[in-house]
Input
Amino acid sequence: MATLVSPRILRSVLPAASLALLMLAIFWLQPRAASYMGLNLMLGLAIPIALATIAQMFILTVNDLDLSIGAYVGFCACIAGTLLVDAPVYGVLALAGGVLAYALLGALIHVRNLPSIVVTLGMSFVWLGAAVLILPRPGGSSPGWIRWLMTLRPEYVPFPILAATAIAAVVHLGLMRTSYGAVLRGAGGNPRAIERAGWSLLKAKMTMYAFAGIFGMLAGLALIGLTTSADANIAARYTLLSIAGVILGGGEFVGGRVSPTGAVIGAITLTLAGSFLTFLQIPPDWQIGATGAILIIVLALRALINRAEER
Amino acid sequence: MARLLDKPWLWAFVGAFVVWIATALFTGGMGAGEVLTAAFTFAVFFVIVGIGQMFVITLGPGNVDLSVPATITLAGAVSTKLMDTADSMILIGFLAAMGVGLGVGVLNYGLIRLLRIPPIIATLSAAFIIQSTAIAYGRGLRIKPPEMLADFTTTRIAGMPVLAICVIVLAGVMAVVLNRTIYGRSVIAIGQNRRAARLAGISVEWTRFATYTMCALFASLCGYLLSGFSGGASLGMGEEYLLASIAVVVIGGTSVAGGFSNVPGLWGAALFMFLLVTMLNTFGAAAGVRLIMTGLIIITVIVLAGGRKAPR
Amino acid sequence: MTEKPAPVVALDGVEKSFGAVRALAGVDLAVGAGQCVGLVGHNGAGKSTLMNVLAGTMAPDSGAIAIAGDDLTRGYSVAAAQARGIRCVFQELSLCPNLTVAENARIMHASLSGFGWRRRAGKLIGEKLDEIFPDHGMSPDDIVGDLAIGRRQMIEVARAFSETDTPVRLVILDEPTSSLDSHVADQLLQFVRRFVGGGGSCILISHLLGEILDYSDQIVVMRDGKVVDKRPAADFTRDALVGAMGSVAEHGEETVDGAGPGRRSQDVVVRALSADGAAAVAAHRGEIIGLAGLAGHGQTELLMRLFDAAGVERGETVVHGPVALVPGDRQSDGIFPLWSIARNISVRSLRTMLRRLLVEASAERDLAEEWKKRIGIRTPDVDNPILSLSGGNQQKVLFARALGSDAEIILMDDPMRGVDVGTKREVYRLIRDEAEKGRTFVWYTTEMDELKHCEHVYVFRNGKVVAELSRSELTEEKVLQSSFEAVEAA
Output
């Protein structure tokens, strides 16, 4: 029995349990939500958020924090909505350039030992500025193939659920099951030991940042597929949402302890929390605050569990 | 001469001067004086939040207050609503704003200390709660600030805004606080070596509490004055002040690794940033360029300064 | 006559200095195949430094390193050492707490990759664990961070002995049983014998003399950076070992004034009980008491307890009066690197320099100048940055900070580590003067010579006070005896 409620089990079960609880609450408040259409509607926006959360997770794994992810997703959405439609070659180059920039940023932060918070905060305005240059006013349109993908209606299971599962599965396999994935996570857990064992910390950092760039880019693509038009500020709230999602999913700020499945579940939970608050008829003014409150509550619970563990 | 050159804040002033000259040259000298006055008028608000943020950043790596914009908004909304255009309520409005600052400071520090959340996350989450409170409280707010307050924020003496003069004095006072009070020395010590500070008898936790509270108080002051200046509080009034507060600290020469800060640099950086925007606007650059440049300059300054290997 | 095979490892004339401190003063060490060498010595003997050189983490100033007869001195590194089968288990663990046991094994072995790597890694570490610790009860999928420290130590050991593409030739074990219970410790040591019996080599460092005597083939005794004795283990007895570790020659000591009976006052200003409520550490006003024993056996923890207890009326730990600490690790515990010398000195005493809420610049300067003279800080200007000073002078600044404050009790955390002799003499004189004026000193030192300045010495072992010696009873041998565990301990 003691092992059943051990902190480790609690920590890994918490995300799925809270999601299940939330869904039950929603279905009880609004029975019509428990349908294919209902789920599709509520969970649609979960995909870009989940992708952004995964991107943030990569950064958190190496003990850094990315405050620019929201601006970057917006930038990618703007590129996708304009260049990718009008001049696909340049669009692809621009998006690839973004990923490269992320990788170089990781290298810079590692080599110069810079605080990731301030650097990414600065970058967020670079991305925002670039997005504003491309789309000074909301506009653009979604590339056809993305639109097709995001509006798929598979037979029994709503597309968002399939997509979320696929994302979680791919990242889980890549980060948690491969041999180099273990090295990447180790770089967050005990960087010195990894270095002493002969691995390159620089390469590890750059890899993680590059993946963050890739998944952030995918988030931008998915987003424009759903909204069909973009603007520079479209993903501004993704920064806090992505951090909250990783934490909700059982990830930690330091030590390299993260969970891709947990992160995806956390992102879905946060997306649904929005609908939940709407059904509860909480005014939209408070929904922003609610995200902050949820994050604080989860962290408070975590602190309590940790303190109990210490004893 | 060498001693003068290695004062980091000097570069901010030099940069500001260079940019101002460039603008003046472009317009053939027309309106150069007005630009300078405008710079001082607007830079004031950056300096106020910059002071608070500077003390927080000096505490050491990982210490940033991301709730500044939300605090500005809430303080502005609360004080404007309470004052309700009445000149007699100016002092009450001020006290109310200070109360907001105190509350936010306690909230931030409480989250950091009790829940052991990293300051970045604590202030980020707190920011969303504070922002929600501001939105809910200030919904539909169309109240104008008291006339006396509005006048105070806009009057000038010989082209120099009175408010700017006051804030220059305030900055001077804070510089003295930083360098010559026990509190100021404690902040700088903690930023250099937290463990050594504790072992040297400094009360680390009290100092942190005081610093986060002070930052919130300065943000509230900014919100209070800003609502008087802009004709009332609005929901997005604090938005640009997050990056601005950090930019002004970093470009002004304070080390992001902690333990080294300087107050004059805040003024230099604030003027520089405003003048840069003016210059870009004058040259006809698109809105996005300003954002990109601000971001790149911050990153460049940090990269050049480099990080310090944190002591164990 | 058959030629003797080249030793697995041969260190020749290795020297290493850190600034003024000579950690290794020309060391020769050879380990043959099928041999377990026990390495013993008191604090500062040079054991850790020597092992760091052998493992490739530190480059020697001079000397030769040969492995299996090949001279590898040039460009020797961790990678080179590991490629030749040299592994080490140091006291600071190098596992990633967020990874599983199998994944940690993978970190060490780059060849464990590709399809099915997890299974192979798990098998590798699992089999090794089974071989060394038959009833370990761990699974390769356990997350290291969730395991107790003893178990982490077991995994670290098993990983060091595990092989993939390069055979393990020599394993360095630095205090390997420190976190293990006796049953597990026995398993480890018996495995070492089996490993050595199969042709492998081992260097065993331990403060448990019983282990060394029972499980080594040869014992090497180090002192002050040199090898002073080297004999087969059978030729050593416990007393002979302890005797070999102590100093024989006296290095020109200055005479120390004995504490006259009339000088010691009766006020107890410091009292602390150890963890099990037993033997107290106590100090009277004006006394200098010493904390001795091997490094890391609880002395610093006691100092921290005293530091935190100042002014607080708690049960077992009582400290009457303001307290200041002089740290030993300047970098991490003492220096404010961006400040001037004057500011580094004044930081503890700011309260006394206030005039109308502001710190008086003149008072600061006066304090700095006064101490510059008293303690002899070599600098042209006290407003110079502190990093412009040499290490010894920086340490003097830390002393000035503590002594220049209002503290009546001064705690010292091995502050003379790595400081030159000249500085030491100046500071010893100052400490005696201050004690005579009524200040109390609690002095943790890893150097035997310094204990003679203390009126009372408490020897620590495994976090407990195991011996209390007054100055008249104090001999190096007694201190060594108590620092090292008895052979016949249960």
